[in-house]
Amino acid sequence: MTSQTTADILATQSNDPTFDNVWDEIVYRGLVHVSTDTEALRELLGGEPITYYCGFDPTAPSLHLGNLVQLLLLRRLQLAGHRPLGLVGGSTGLIGDPRPTAERVLKTREQTAEWVERIRVHVTKFIASDGANALRVVNNLDWTEPMSAIEFLRDIGKNFRVNTMLKKDAVSARLNSDAGISYTEFSYQILQGLDFRELYRTYDCVLQTGGSDQWGNLTSGTELIRRTEGVSVHAIGTPLITNSDGTKFGKSEGNAIWLDPDMTSPYAFYQFWLNQDDSDVIDRLKVFTFLSRAEIEGLEVEVKERPFAREAQKRLALEVTSLVHGTDATQAAIDASSALFGRGDLTALPLDVVDAAIAELPNATVDATTTVSQAMVATGLVESLGAARRAAAEGGVYVNNERVSDESVAISTLALAGGRAILRRGKKTLAGVTIVG
After folding, report:
1. pTM of the model
2. 53 marked ligand binding residue
3. Phi, then psi, of 425 in degrees rounded to 5
């Protein structure tokens, strides 16, 4: 695999030339769950360059899987010649978008500012910052902080109707809960509407994108601009990415897939994509890769005719992990995946990659005197020492891909550098051990 960074991959991206209009391509890719006037949007995106934006709030130190959908949509529109604005929410991050369940804990100004910078770096990583339609990053604190409370209430708040605001999904859910909702979070949709108007006035921005769960906030902006400027602007809500049981991936649900390698390792990131269900993988390829329609259709045939080969999942994992983490980290993840199951050299893997793999497996920390059989029990590979002895006698116990016949040997004598060991029972059942002392 040729060594490439995200910047290198960015330079090779292109939209599928078999689509006459980028609108048709994003519809094909399933990126439009809800929108304003579809015919007007198709005409708009097929015409002269427009300015469009998406906002990213610093509610965590990293962006995640759901944000990547927006970043890739911004990139596709940029490749079609349109001008992207990436908004980082220095002010909205201080307020907090209302969740359906409970009030957010407000972050300090210092922490919010630190996370704003981290989010800015993420945004600039995936969208080109050079050329005639280079990315421009803006911070809504720049126009919100100077505004007085009187200005906010008279000039902005006057244009919003409380009965309409109460109908927003998150607001309605909170009103019907024991938690209720504070005026602070209730006002969030007004602030997001103000952002759209500011970007319309300053940059002639006429389109906002966001997740479909943000639709109420997106339309707050379109409505404010209609009322105060007398023009119609547009919004696109993308579908939420969910797991097989319909649960959303995100920080609120505790199952976020982060873009920061310190929060989700490249190995874990790669495994997430590799483990996609056959029923989901083609949709994921459409949303998260720049593979052409023809390539995706070819992989769809593979899923139907040779599902056991998992070619679509392998290509998905390769493409997305390379984009986010570069090809070197992706190759390390691939090598680790092969080595764990005896198809590669575990000793050649860097310690951080081994640790990332162990973190994704059932694992235990043991001392240097622990035997292989004790380690198997500690990690849950077997239920008892007797079961460990039987498995070893049958030839089904491996430590770092070497078959172990004497389960009473200290596992530290078989460990990799750094005191790590990968236990395997049979062909596919794995666990990890970290040895201390």
Report:
1. 0.91
2. yes
3. -115, 120
Alpha helices in 92-239 (DSSP H): 92-95, 109-126, 141-144, 149-151, 162-165, 169-175, 183-186, 188-203, 215-229
Which pLDDT band, with edges at 50, 70 and 90, does 306 fall under? very high
- Residues contacting 332, CB < 8 A, separation 6+: 266, 267, 349, 350, 353
Bridging pattern class, strands 234-238 and 34-35: antiparallel
Q: Which of 293, 323, 296, 312 is nearest to 16 (CA)?
A: 293
Q: Residue 267 annotated as binding?
A: no
The SS3 of residue 344 is coil
Nearest CA-CA partner of 173 in 160, 161, 186: 186
> What whole-number percentage of the chain has pLDDT above 70?
98
Which domains occur in the chain, in start order? Answer: 31-238 (3.40.50.620), 361-437 (3.10.290.10)
Q: Where are the beta strands (DSSP E) in 167-226?
A: 205-211
How far, CA to CA in Å, does 428 sit from each of 88, 362, 421?
Answer: 44, 13, 16
**Encoded tokens for 116:** 């704003």
CA–CA distance, 290 with 375 (Å, rounded to integer): 44
Count of H-run helices and E-run strands, the chain: 21, 11
Determine whether the annotation assigns residue 52 to a binding site. Answer: no
pLDDT, mean over the chain = 93
* Residue 188 counted as an annotated binding residue: yes
The helix or strand, by DSSP H or E, that contains position 435, with its residue range, turns out to be strand 429-436
What confidence tens digit (pLDDT) does each residue in 221-270 have?
Answer: 999 999 999 999 999 999 999 876 676 665 555 578 999 999 999 999 99
Both tokens of residue 261?
A: 């390698």
